[in-house]
Amino acid sequence: MPVAAARTFPLLAALCALSVGTSAHAQQKNLRDYGVAIGVLQPGRLNAITDVPGVKVGQKTLVRGDDVRTGVTAILPYAGNVFQGKVPAAVYVGNGFGKLAGSTQVEELGNLETPIVLTNTLSVPTAADALIDYTLSLPGNAGVRSVNPVVGETNDGYLNDIRGRHVAKRDVLDAIGSATGGPVEQGSVGAGTGTVAFGFKGGIGTSSRRLPPSLGGYAVGVLVQTNFGGVLSVDGVPVGKALHKYYLSDRLGDSPDGSCMIVVATDAPLDARNLKRLAKRAMLGLGRTGGIASDGSGDYAIAFSTNTAVRVPYASDDPVQKTEVLRNDAMSPLFMAAIEATEEAIVNSLFHARDMTGADRHRVDALPVDEVLGIMRQHGYRISR
Q1: Which architecture does CATH list for 26-314+324-378?
Q2: Residue 313: its pLDDT value, please?
Q3: N or C of the chain: less Cβ packing under 10 Å?
């Protein structure tokens, strides 16, 4: 039974979680809910990527038997036919050890024509095939003969039987079909089900920022799939060092490889060039958490704008686009929003994750939140419960 079913059957889902080796912690919270506010900008109402108008997220979590720990996370720029109304987009590569399908066309044309799907490394072809099916099936796409599916991944093979390729096209379509604009489930769910970050259980995390009205009032939302290493820092506090668990330490001397997928959404009217500049700043947020973009890590940021004024119609009688976009000198507040939201989203992925046992009896413990909060107190933070 997928962990996502906890919304409907909480007791049954909890028992199921125990049976597959995940611990039953109390309800997890965002870092901010404990009184630690990263950065200076305020989050949106949900503190999630879905604070950006139009953005929807759907997930499918696959937890079966002793060794299936994987899933799918789908991000929709808006609820309509994205192929017919393409959104400006850009990709920035922090370190390219990954399989980001569709990235070259986004780089060349500067737009996105499908939802973004995140999954595990060996399920990228399946997810791409499902995205093609989804796009061809939409009303108005009967004459479409080319689709650029965008699929990102991280390798969850430590906890998941990745060679079994358990993600099916139906799972991808279910994730897309379940997408909503409400709260986003975080932690060991969807594409983050089997991931590991900083030696702890990783997962899906999200956060957002909203600029003040004087700066346009635009929203920036970020969703991450964390599966990478380094020396964990929480709002500047060297948590990984204090816990004696970090790359090259005596307790965690293994590889920091893995990958981090970062999706940045905004309703600011940006073209692809400035969206690439925005995507670059997401890597600064990753660095602020202690990630090192190691040799074997695929660290990618995809940024897109949902502003209706900058959508690109599939077919138009007017080949000249006359859309007003933000100027370069308006970008700095958005840069800071992307950095802060990325940093907080990564930390939230750790705060929401649960202990997990998976393939080959490998076990990864969740971040010890109580210990982390104690370390934060020692550094002068006033923690609320």
Answers
A1: 4-Layer Sandwich (3.60)
A2: 87
A3: C
